[in-house]
Specification:
The strands form 4 sheets. Strands 5-4-3-6-2-1-7-8 form an 8-stranded mixed β-sheet, with helices on one face. Strands 9, 10, 11, 12, 13 and 14 form a 6-stranded mixed β-sheet that branches. Helix content is about 35%, strand content about 20%. By secondary structure, the protein is an alpha+beta fold. Helix 12 crosses helix 17. The radius of gyration is 48 Å and the shape is elongated. Pfam families: HATPase_c_3, HSP90. This is Histidine kinase/HSP90-like ATPase domain-containing protein. Keywords: ATP-binding, Chaperone, Nucleotide-binding, Stress response, Transit peptide.
Length: about 800
């Protein structure tokens, strides 16, 4: 839109000829007159000029007289005659006004969307109808304060639900404020118009009256949820403001409804509303009295008014039993025996109203008045558990104008099992809005999933819900609630950890320790709350877990970091070669023996300005415990040997270095600083699902460290200096690498080859140690045979005929 300042356009009335003047403007304009033959252009120019002259312009005369062309201004002044100006005044017309239209809607289609698309669960129909009945009772109670005559007819304020299973009919009756005929048209005949919302607005406008925060309705569509299960709904209502009772009736597939006056005396009610649902064929199961009672307890357990359901009951009584004729004849023969009437116990069945809900929730009561047994009983109902618990008192929090209450419990055992850590469907927190249950299916909106073991309820009077009141919308209020609830949960867990009975927290950690470690990974904002709650075994405490605070207290004065090693068990961790030098110097090392431990510690990065250091990775710095002069001499002595070993191993290792962490082992294989440790590599292989691309990338570099003080390394050094190409020395290097691979926690790529090398070395070592060479037994047997020949019998000569 073109805007001109007062200096650009000056319109004033001259005495005598009412001529118009246009002041000098910044842009240039042609002085040529417009062509009168182009009617469309003249009309356009007239409209343009009328914006400058408040619409006082003649379409056919004003523009030619003014000589305005090309829609631009000049620095010159133009004047029209008085007659032309007068004609312009008389014939000027304002632009035609814009037409206004109302949105149209196909009522039957709109009802179908409300009924079938708005709600995801049919069960909520009863919750919505009970909430409407509760609002009607609340309105009556409020209005009765200033007008007691309204509640004079029926004093009891309650809700009654009658279920007829045989006919598939549910009847809900309340003794609330009821509706007049006009209110029926306004509230039931107008979709999305909330009578409760209008009532609250009236209360808000009346500053002296205040507001009633217990009213539930907001959107004006809750009543139509009845058509989720009913094909026909009848509403009979009587308002104390009217002498007549009216009946509203509507069908699910119809775009119209009927209203009539109630004339049947048997159907008259003193005050309130009676809603009758004629259920659909597939939904007649909702008319089961036990199911109705279950739905009331689930959704409307804590509505402010008593809810009665029609239930079958029974009591035991004794009744007489008719005598057997044979026994009766025998008794008649024995006159001396006193006869006693025989009875038996039977259960007498009857139907009556039964109170189904509790009108005073435990979280709305003063926490000082609630005893431990009441907390226990509520926990059992909430979790369906027989165990005791650690509970937190009811807390009341406020964010701006929004106030909410909560009560949280820590169960003693994990109900889903110790390994069920990442279950996102855990229904641990029940959300209520004005005592009406909304949902317990949240995916991190109210509680992070790592705290899914916390049980409890949250109740607020004002939360951002969607129209169906089933989904909690994201907002600053919700984020604030989540923040405060998480803080309360951590305070509760910290209280358990500081308990004088150490076994309490040990039991808690056994069940929920993995959840808190998962929190270290997912919730960086609460690292300061999570870290003091962690527990680990260590090289100085293999039987009892210690906290990070205890570790820091036990640190050496010169120690600058928190050392840890990740493994699959305490036995493998404490026997790893990485610990040798640290144990000698009495430096404590944490044992991370659960799969989640290593990732959790890496997520924390530090604790109380002490960095976490993995002792199985390269560049381990022991601070003042290093001897720099000795290291320089050793590097000079073994530097070339390291290069020789690296040449033999090739791409298997990134480098060969002198180790500062070994004392009794000849060598060790450490991970790169930014790669996976041996423990993490083992875990990721088990989860890679056949994809080895990421494994090869994250393996990173491996560094082969040797211990120069070990005899094997000294012999290897001597072999290099005497004969670098000796085959036995080469085989010794290969076997030393494979042994370091296994002892460091890695998995050999070819276990069979490693086994063959070990057997070969065993054969060389054990050859001839316990047995003689194979040729010695044969020689022994030859000598034995010759001895037998030498021992042959000697025969003396015999004389014959005087001759020998």
């Amino acid at each position: 839109m073109l805007r001109l300042s007062k200096r650009s356009v000056s319109t004033f009335l001259r005495s005598g000829d009412r001529s118009f003047r246009v002041a000098k403007a910044a842009t240039s304009i042609s002085r040529s007159s417009p062509s009168t033959t182009d009617a469309k252009r003249v009309e356009t120019e007239a409209r343009w000029f009328s914006s400058l002259t408040n619409g006082k312009c003649n379409k056919t005369e004003s523009l030619p007289h003014l000589n305005m062309t090309n829609y631009r201004f000049t620095g010159y002044r133009y004047e029209s005659s008085a007659a032309a100006a007068a004609a312009s005044d008389s014939s000027s017309q304002a632009p035609p006004p814009a037409e206004k239209f109302e949105y149209q809607a196909e009522v039957s289609r709109l009802m179908d969307l409300i009924v079938n698309s708005l709600y995801s669960n049919k069960e909520v129909f009863l919750r919505e109808l009970i909430s409407n009945a509760s609002d009607a009772l609340d309105k009556l109670r409020y209005l009765s304060v200033t007008n007691p005559e309204l509640s004079k007819v029926a004093a009891d304020l309650d809700i009654r639900i009658y279920a007829d299973k045989e006919n598939g009919v549910i009847t809900l009756t309340d003794s609330g404020i009821g509706m007049t005929r006009q209110e029926i048209v306004d509230c039931l005949g107008t979709i999305a118009q909330s009578g409760t919302a209008k009532f609250l607005k009236a209360l808000k406008d009346n500053k002296d009256a205040g507001g009633d925060n217990n009213l539930i309705g907001q959107f004006g569509v809750g009543f139509y949820s009845a058509f989720l299960v009913a094909d026909r709904v009848t509403v009979s209502t009587k308002s104390p403001k009217s002498d007549k009772q009216y009946v509203w009736e509507g069908e699910a597939d119809s775009s119209s409804y009927t209203i009539k006056e109630e004339t049947d005396p048997q159907l008259m009610i003193p005050r309130g509303t009676r809603i009758t649902l004629h259920l659909k064929r597939d939904d007649k199961g909702f008319a089961d009295p036990e199911r109705v009672q279950k739905l009331v307890k689930n959704y409307s357990q804590f509505v402010s008014f008593p809810i009665y359901t029609w239930q079958e009951k029974g009591y035991t009584k004794e009744v007489e039993v008719d005598d057997d004729p044979a026994e009766s004849k025998k008794d008649d023969q024995d006159d001396q025996t006193e006869r006693k009437k025989k009875t038996k116990k039977v259960v007498e069945r009857y139907w009556d109203w039964e109170l189904t809900n509790e009108t005073q929730p435990i979280w709305l009561r003063n926490s000082k008045e609630v005893i431990a047994e009441e907390y226990n009983e509520f926990y059992r109902k909430l979790s369906t558990s027989i165990w005791t618990h650690w509970h937190h008192p009811t807390s009341q929090l406020r964010y701006g104008e929004v106030e909410f209450r909560s009560i949280l419990y820590v169960p003693p055992v994990s109900p889903m099992g110790k390994d069920d850590v990442v279950n996102q469907k855990t229904k641990n927190i029940r959300l209520y809005v004005k005592r009406v249950f909304i949902s317990d299916d949240f995916d991190g909106e109210l509680f992070p999933r790592y705290l899914s073991f916390i049980k409890g309820v949250v109740d607020s009077h004002d939360l951002p819900l969607n129209v169906s009141r089933e989904i909690l919308q994201e907002s600053r209020i919700v984020r604030f609630m989540k923040k405060r609830l998480v803080k309360k949960a951590f305070d509760m867990i910290l209280g358990i950890s500081l308990s004088e009975n150490r076994e309490d927290y040990e039991k808690f950690w056994e069940n929920f320790g993995k959840h808190l470690k998962l929190g270290c990974i997912e919730d960086r904002e609460n690292h300061k709350r999570l870290a003091p709650l962690l527990r680990f075994f260590s090289s100085q405490s293999e039987n009892d877990m210690i906290s990070l605070d205890e570790y820091v207290e036990n640190m050496k004065a010169e120690q600058k970091a928190i050392y840890y090693i990740a493994s699959d068990s305490i036995t493998s961790a404490k026997n790893a070669p990485f610990l040798e030098k640290l144990l000698e110097k009495e430096l404590e090392v944490l044992y991370l023996v659960e799969p989640i431990d290593e990732v959790a510690i890496q997520s924390l990065k530090s604790y109380k300005d002490k960095d976490f250091i993995d002792i199985s990775k390269e560049d381990l710095d022991l601070g003042k415990y290093k001897n720099e002069e000795k290291e320089a001499a050793v590097k000079k002595e073994f530097g070339q040997t390291c290069d020789w070993i690296k040449k033999r191993l090739g791409d298997k290792v990134a480098s060969v270095q002198i180790s500062s962490r070994l004392s009794s082992s000849p060598c060790v294989l450490v991970s790169g600083k930014f790669g996976w440790s041996a423990n993490m590599e083992r875990l990721m292989k088990a989860q890679s699902a056949g994809d080895t691309t990421s494994l090869e990338f994250m393996k990173g570099r491996r560094v082969f460290e040797i211990n120069p003080d070990h005899s094997i390394i000294k012999n290897i050094n001597a072999a290099y200096k005497s004969n670098p190409n000796d085959e036995d020395a080469m085989r010794a290097i290969d076997l030393m690498y494979d042994a370091a691979l296994v002892s460091s926690g890695f998995t050999p790529e070819n276990p069979a080859e490693l086994g063959g090398k070990i057997y070969e070395m065993m054969g060389i070592t054990l050859s001839g140690k316990w047995s003689s060479p194979e040729f010695q037994p044969q020689q022994h047997m030859a000598h034995s045979g010759n001895a037998e020949l030498l021992e042959a019998e000697v025969v003396e000569p015999v004389e014959v005929d005087g001759k020998k």
